[in-house]
Amino acid sequence: MTVSTDQHKEGKRDVTFRVFRFNPQVDSKSYFDDYTIPVERGITVLRALNYIKEHVDASVSFRAFCQAGICGSCGMRVNGISMLACTTQVWDMLAKSKEEGVIKVEPLRNLPLIKDLIVDMDPLVDKMKHYSNWVDSTMPESEMGKKEFLVSEEEFLKYDKATDCILCASCVSECSILRANKEYVSPAVLLKSYRMNVDTRDSMHDLRLAELVKDHGVWDCTHCYRCQESCVKSIPIMDAIHGIREDALESRGMKDTSGAKHAEAFMSDIEKKGKLVEATLPFRTNGVLWTMQNLLPMAVKMILKRRTPPPPPMVKPSKGIKAFRSEFREMSEHVKQDHKSHKK
Amino acid sequence: MKRYAYYLSCINESMTKEVDRSIDLWQKDLGIELVKLHESTCCGGSNLDYVSPKHFALVNARNIAYAEKMGLDLVVSCNTCLMTIRTAKKKLDESPELKQEVNELLKKEGLEYHGTSEVRHLLWVLIDDVGLETIRQKVKVPLKDYRIAPFYGCHILRPSSVLGKDNPLDPSSLDLLIEALGGETIPYEHKNRCCGFHTLLVAEQESLNVAGEALEEALRLKADFIVTPCPLCHTVLDGYQAKALKQAGIKSSIPVFHLSEMVGLALGYNAKQLGIKRHIVS
Amino acid sequence: MKPFDIVIVGGGGAGLYAAMEAMKTNPALNIAVLSKVYPNRSHTSAAQGGANAALANKAKDDTVEMHIFDTIKGSDYLADQDAVEVLCSEAPKIIRELENIGTPWSRLDDNTIAQRPFGGAGRPRCCYCADKTGHTILQTLYEQCLKKGVIFFNEYFALNLSVNGSRSKGLIAMNMKTGAVEAFPARTVIFATGGYAKMYWNRSSNAAGNTGDGQAIAYRAGIPLKDMEFVQFHPTGLRKSGLLVTEGARGEGGYLLNKDGERFMSRYAPEKMELGPRDLVSRSLETEILQGRGFDSPAGKYIHLDLTHLGADLIKSRLPQIREMAMNFEGVDPILEPIPVRPTAHYSMGGIDTDNYGRTVMEGVYAAGESACVSVHGANRLGGNSLLDILVFGRIAGHTAALEARKFEPAAISEDEVKDQLAELRSSMQPSGHYERYGELREELGQTMAANVGIYRESSLLKKGIAEVAELKERFKKVRVSDSSDVFNTNLLQVLELKNMLDLAETVAAGAFAREESRGSHTRTDFPTRDDEKWHKHTMATLIDGHVKLGEKPVTMGRYELQERTY
Question: ipTM of this model?
């Protein structure tokens, strides 16, 4: 964030907050109210909302608690993007407004709406429970408090960033897949699941992982990176999601689920041809039956348009494939060695 | 004539052959030469990085090293390839150990990865190297009657720590190009959203929902067509369009063009030359 | 589900530890946690520094005994020494237990829990997780409570205790999502609702909801509050929000400047300058402002914390969070210009009077954490002891309630009582004729508390403060709730919270007026020294006939004799 010299000069101006309104007791559908208030430089969106609530319309409803960017209560969409209202400067958002001098404020997406800017967080808590987002200690309760586990810096660093999460649900709101399917595990819960699974004090890695690879789980992420991009704590959430997948492939094998098979296909095709053999990817991911049912109607059209990917023998290997293959295989040896020394 | 090494994406070699075909038509018109890297291997498609991080580094170090050998930047015309190869480059440049391990193996081909070649999207080259003014001058058939919905796709924008060209919240490069070609861009809220490609085979319904929303908005805004700089987005928005719209209960259709085709149209090539007839939605 | 064996009010560190420990003590019990926010939002998450425990990981010669002494001395000898002994001797066990269930403590080279030095501690014994210690502890406890299946009533606002003579029958609370008033009949109730420093409003670093709800409910039910006059001020709060700029800014070489551009600390602490003890620096800033050498702004008078001479590189690399805060909450980039600051109320030492087991004088009612006063902090709390307090005594209160719950008969709360509460709420929402605005009353409360019951206290100021609080209480009877909705009526909640703050403000002001001495955080300009003969005792505030009555309670002494507190 930069504070431009212009902003230094300009101390105060009128700003219109276009606030999403919905009260289930009286409204059949949502609408927007415009509140134009004087705002001085240095004021956050949350303070502006507080001002509106106190001086203009006390019925505007939103959550706020610490007002300092740590409790995660005031997640909302400002000019369409999910963020914390308490750490967002009005001046910065004005620069990004579509309509001059107007800032749009809406509730988070992908969670049930309660009222105005307030959404129901219970579905998120339920998912945290479903995916056992806690450390189930390997230490019996009767032994606790007597001695510490020794935890290396290396292990600590694996989950350090993940424990920054304040469950503000910005990532939940921005997630492409949740938007399509509310049952999806959601980025925050994947992040927490990852954090638990890399903690050696925890005893239920395998069970948690088994749940994560099921439908609506880790393989349903479509790599759009919206979660990571909107994270108010700059947590690399996709690293965690990929971390769970890497773990799933290693712990449960390459043939475990359609997601795993799909991922494995990349590895084997690259080794064989240097290229992806797209024609057989659906079969290898989901089997013959699924492919026939789901893709056959489309295939006809594609054949007519000469759009079908070439069958495996027709996929021309990359130039220099021989040397490449030997490099690739030697790397496989490296990886094997790494695993051995890691397990020790 | 500015030269670049051109990365061959798997999908453009198989399903979306029209992309490279159209680029071949017009690259000289714009004063650029894209030298095809036949040694290119699959980048890993944003999957290999977690299947095997080390193979991922090796494969892409090699892809870039071939461009470096020619002293050229590597140009890519698939978003996911772009993001994937740039991610690998970032990892290699940040870890001397990884770089060394990979280079030991690349020796077999007489290659070495240095980190000197940039990895860039074709769209970025058009904007930054060719320049909007030059493009404007070269336009023969301005797209002036068209309302165009720019669909950037994810991996040309996010993660911004790896891409960094456009503001992922409000990208503009594709809009600027459309304007330079004489077209009208529409305020398309899905411009920076996802097409759902990467879960098509794993969670098809979700993917189709995601794509359906993007198509619905373009139709609602009465766009004449959607344009995308990514062949994967194209595959969903065009190839799966009927399925996605059916799931969304919409009876309509909208053409989807590749970036390379749109440029070709404005430069005076016809639909047949550009391979537009190969699209599922005509 | 109802009636409950234990109802815990508050889902912060104390409440969650109580819930976890109670489930552990007797898994057959029916336990509920009621919280006005989702538990992971609680103010425990704002504690950055850490928790003290004599683990002796860092300094091998550290002992529980030294921790006890440091705490008693820090309290200016007002802490009860037996309570401090419990606090410090339980500390290592608590920290290890948290470690055992997943708290991501930072680590030393030998992979043990990391510890660092903290103000007023003779050894580096503050256990931490980077600068997010409270946050990670809260997450861990919440996770473990979910694991154990604790029943949560999230976004429920506690209204009152239901009392039958000397015995509590349970709690009455409002479901914020529906606006319905519900009864929670319970054998035992534990208050763990956090502090009350938000009554200083934008002169406070606290969360908006740190309004002392539990203390106010207990007080209205006739339970005495202890040592309410002791409120700790931090020297550098941001002007607009009161949020803390941590000591790191001064540690790295930041200057405190008045409006004449003078490094005024040279007059108060010529050697240590900006790095003098926290209470001294707070008083110095306040003096500058009071004597007219502060800056003026619509948001109030302030002092400059100037980092510009440190240069962009140092600020970016060493003080990134402070920079982010200044930009987020003041719109000021400290690389380019000074940060506007002034002292801010950030911790309340006083609270519900309890014994060392968390019991209050009322049967079946317990309290723990910042809402309680055992007392372990006396007149002044040491850094790193607040997290420890909520953990140790949260755990003890949960354990005690679990052991004692079945001794009490299951209670019932009549429909009528719930209806009365609802009627009272509704009538308070729409006064006829002239009405008062919530925002004005709250603003005035903050101002009068800061001006008259703030860092410097003096007889005439305190009288003024007491009168103004009384007047505000009177005006409050005409306050209007402008939102008529049942669903998530945050306007109603604000008004209910203001009521709690007003009730407690009266006790803070009364205690401050009565205590004619200076001790710890309580500075009387008209009584500038500690007076052990008259005032080595706790004040006890009880509500009798609608007014605060002050009593007293002796301080429990032990091994350590009274000494002058010097560092």
Answer: 0.94
